[in-house]
Amino acid sequence: MIQLQANMTGFAGRPQTVLGALDEETGILVVAAVTDIIPRRDGCVLIETNPRADRDSLFSYEDLKDAISAYYELKGNVAADGKSACLRFTERAMRADPAGGIELDGIDVSGPLYRISPEAGNAQIGALALCRYARNFSAISDTLGMADDLGRLLSGEAVTI
Questions:
Q1: What pLDDT is recorded for position 159?
Q2: In whole angstroms, how far apart are CA 59 and each of 5, 132, 143?
Q3: Which domain of life is it from (predicted)?
Q4: Which pairing describes strands 87-89 and 28-36: parallel, antiparallel, or unpaired?
Q5: 10 closest CA partner among 56, 63, 54
């Protein structure tokens, strides 16, 4: 289980921290809580909007389209068990669900275009940042797993597909 913390500033409302956890085995992301901004918690991967802050991942305006796509991807996918949703919001984090702040604004050759409400707050953007991180983590993990399998195959070991 990977603990995640997104400290968001620069969007609507007061600065907010969104806390969550990613189960790397099942692919389930749980957005657990929203609070006024707090310092880095021990054991958390920290996602920040401040480029000068001590962080593990930077989130900026340029990441919004990718984050929205990750949100809809997680929201529409089913976990490894075949029945659980990949994205869950606890009761303490429901106000971070960005569903009400995103509108489809058309489609072009690069994919869907989204419009974000000017009232979308730091908590909602924080949830999007967690979704983006979770999707990127899964892609990197899958690539590393494939590289390990390829290494074993090249060394003469049997590999199952």
A1: 65
A2: 12, 9, 22
A3: Bacteria
A4: parallel
A5: 63
Rounded CA-CA distance 81/148 in Å is 24
CA–CA gap between residue 86 and residue 130 (Å, rounded): 13
- Mean pLDDT within 19-34: 93
Q: Which two tokens stand for residue 105?
A: 């604004």
Paired tokens of 107: 């489609």
Cα 57 versus chain centre, distance:
11
Give CA–CA dist 121/109, Å, rounded: 29
| Mean of all residue pLDDT scores within the chain | 87
Residues 11/121, Cβ–Cβ less than 8 Å: yes
Q: Does residue 38 carry a pLDDT above 70?
A: yes
* C-beta neighbour count of 21 within 10 angstroms: 17
**Does the pLDDT at position 145 exceed 70?**
no
Cβ(89)–Cβ(96) under 8 Å? yes
pTM over 0.85: no
Reference 31, options 49, 13, 18, 46; nearest CA is 18
CB 96 within 8 A of CB 122: no
Torsion sign across C-alpha atoms 93, 50, 128, 122: positive
